[in-house]
Q: What sequence folds into this?
């Protein structure tokens, strides 16, 4: 066994899943309170609940909850059950909140969902719906990087060690024959783990040559003079791969299935509304971002960031397994047993009631 492989396996044994903080987008770690749910709760309470606690990130890959809350679509389905929203900056904090009962349902990326499920030996959460696909790009300084064949010796940022985009970049580089130590990020290409909120400044200052990042960070880099040389959609069948899922604590799912169904119904209706009202949806998204993130996006960032993310009810389960396989191949993840990570029963019930086709769990449904 090579020394590098030994170090990777040792690291994986020390932390049995993805190393370090596993936020889908890596925006930090603190949860922020969101005091507005669009409209006031009124009418009958769903499942007898006074409130339901919902978590999400303040970025464009979480367009479904942001827009749905802004337009009051979630509150409409929940009636007299008030929504208590919380905005997170990274996946680990959201998983901790779910495990502690601080939130009941959350929108989150694939890596922290896998991590949370596996660390709890399949007892903490279920993925109950998809939410978004795509929205990830490799953006470079065109003065320094001429194309995909010009990455040797360059420094490329990802949000976090072992996060979804980090794994994707490592897998891509290995496929192109570049050798990189996954743990240190050193090798033919230097992989530099940089918080997304810092990446645009690092890019402008020239300390990185490019970044493999989600929206809206990718569009921020383009607005700063960067060039997109790869949209990750091109690496996946039909251009689809999971970037955001909906998760729920298993305890809450068991005790309050009607409330979970109401949230999923709101999610499905929100996604349909986004697709049929793109201009209004984009405005609602930016209005909510201004509220929860403290700052709206300028049009030259908002427009491409919104366009690059596809909302979807389908969790694209096969791509979740592939992303886990990529992490195993990179040495950042011990092979996980993902059987049972999905429970799409309520989602498919909602989809059928809306006249839509049910979606599949790729064999990763309940045991």
A:
């Amino acid at each position: 066994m090579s020394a590098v492989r030994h170090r990777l396996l040792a690291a994986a044994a020390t932390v049995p899943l993805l190393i370090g903080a596993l936020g889908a987008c890596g925006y930090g770690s603190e949860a922020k309170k969101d005091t507005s749910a669009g409209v006031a709760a009124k009418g009958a309470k769903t499942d007898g609940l006074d409130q339901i606690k919902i978590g999400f990130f303040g970025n464009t890959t979480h367009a479904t909850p942001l827009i749905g809350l802004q337009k009051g679509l979630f509150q409409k389905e929940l009636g007299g059950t008030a929504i208590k929203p919380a905005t997170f900056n990274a996946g680990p904090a959201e998983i901790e909140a779910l495990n502690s009962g601080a939130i009941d349902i959350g929108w989150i990326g694939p890596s922290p969902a896998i991590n949370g499920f596996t660390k709890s030996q399949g007892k903490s959460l279920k993925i109950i719906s998809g939410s978004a696909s795509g929205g990830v790009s490799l953006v470079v300084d065109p003065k320094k990087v001429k194309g995909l064949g010009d990455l040797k010796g360059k420094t490329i940022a990802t949000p976090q060690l072992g996060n979804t985009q980090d794994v994707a970049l490592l897998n891509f580089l290995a496929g192109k024959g570049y050798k990189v130590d996954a743990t240190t990020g050193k090798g033919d290409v230097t992989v530099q783990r940089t918080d997304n909120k810092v990446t645009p400044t690092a890019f402008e200052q020239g300390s990185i040559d490019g970044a493999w990042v989600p929206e809206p960070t990718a569009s921020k880099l383009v607005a700063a003079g960067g060039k997109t040389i790869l949209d990750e959609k091109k690496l996946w069948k039909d251009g689809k791969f999971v970037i955001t899922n909906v998760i729920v604590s298993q305890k809450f799912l068991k005790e309050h299935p009607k409330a979970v169904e109401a949230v999923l119904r709101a999610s499905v209706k929100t996604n349909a509304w986004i697709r049929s009202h793109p201009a209004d949806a984009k405005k609602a998204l930016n209005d909510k971002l201004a509220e929860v993130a403290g700052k709206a996006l300028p049009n030259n960032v908002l427009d491409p960031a919104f366009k690059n993310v596809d909302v979807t009810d389908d969790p694209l389960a096969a791509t979740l397994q592939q992303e886990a396989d990529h992490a195993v191949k990179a040495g950042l993840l011990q092979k996980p047993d993902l059987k049972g990570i999905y429970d799409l029963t309520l989602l498919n019930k909602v989809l059928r009631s809306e006249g839509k086709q049910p979606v599949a769990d790729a064999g990763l449904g309940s045991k």
User: Anything to note?
Assistant: The two ends are 35 Å apart (CA to CA). The chain has a mean pLDDT of 89.
